[in-house]
Amino acid sequence: MGCRSLRIPGSSYRMINLHRDYLPAIALGITQIMGYGTLMYAYAVLLPHMADDLGLSLSSAFGILSLGLFFGGAVAPVSGALVDRFGGRWVMTTGSALAGISVMSLGFVQNTYGLFAAILCAEAAGMMVLYNVAFASVARLDLRVPTKKSISVITLFGGVASTIFWPITLWLYNWQGWQATWFILGMAYVLVCVPLHFFTLARPMTDAGTTNQAELADWPELTGQDRKRGMIWMLVSFIFSGYLMGAVMTLWVTNVQDLGHTAAMAAFAGAVIGPFKTVGRFFEMLVSRNMYPLVTYGLSLALVSAGFVTILTVGFTLPGLFIAAALYGMGDGIKTIARGTLPLALFGAKGYGARLGWISVVTMGLNASAPFVFAWTTQTFGGWWSFAAMAACIAVAVATFLLIPDPRQPNRTLSHAST
């Protein structure tokens, strides 16, 4: 069989092309590890030490970060619109240069104003390089790999960002302090991400408003009133399903301790979440060939819901705690894929980047309050009730997900044809 394949150069050429067409997704996956590691997860390690040295309270320092994230969300629609118009190469290359410089500048701040300016610049630049822009960028490339598959590959890499960067950042801090750590992280980001964005996105692009046509032929867009209803219910579901991320990251250890576990065991169980995000994304990538994005999103909500049911019922036991962390991690990992593919499936490729940007504005703006809301719930009622409130949010997300119209339903298509 090997000899037969050698005598068919056309077949060999197609195989090489197929493998080469995965390179942009792989490269963007690497840059997502770097991006989330430096622009998101490093703050958890370094910001408390910066607050001490700058004479700030911890809440003030993280309040500045919340403002930076909110400002970054406001930049997202502009970045998405630029990708729609020009493609992702120059947007992501410029953004990675600006993000790296901004991260390096964090090592030189000497007061509150400097910290505020550096974080605002870093998070604004981050909206030019993180998931939504990466999804929109790969959708504009003329590739034989379906956009859905490329998005799955990108998120598969990004799931290990916390697993890699929390220990690296802590090691760098213990070795050189926070000033040098920020400079090293920023310089590494520039050296790795600028060339990857510049060279791997230098490929032919589809016409604006189009993407893999064979894929979109199986993804009919919503039309008429269903289009408006679909956007509303999808956005509401995204808001409630995304409201938990910041709360889980910041309150997991505290809430789990309230269930009767030690801080060390709570932290160890929390460390399971990151790797299982990657497990969930890898599973989705294996089975996603015939999986419609609406089904993918439903699967993610089901897994997250199962995780919260588990922790509320048997979370006081060690097996229950770790099963809950694994289920939540898998569901949250798959949800990231669905947040990129579902808007593409329901509303089409035209304006896809800007659409993701506006979704980010709404979700990030509202989700910024989540850590405070759930922290108050934990302090007032306890960790179990805080988890119960999170479960209630997932229940709302599921209920609104069920209201999203499915454009593949024959009766829906016929009703639109008659009008």
From TrEMBL:
One of its GO terms (molecular function) is transmembrane transporter activity. Gene3D superfamilies: MFS general substrate transporter like domains. InterPro entries: MFS, MFS_trans_sf, Proton-linked_MCT. SUPFAM superfamilies: MFS general substrate transporter (SSF103473). The chain crosses the membrane at residues 21-44, 56-78, 90-109, 115-139, 151-173, 179-199, 232-253, 259-279, 291-312, 356-377, 383-404. The keyword Oxidoreductase does not apply. PANTHER family: BLL3089 PROTEIN, MONOCARBOXYLATE TRANSPORTER. This is MFS transporter. It comes from Aliiroseovarius halocynthiae.
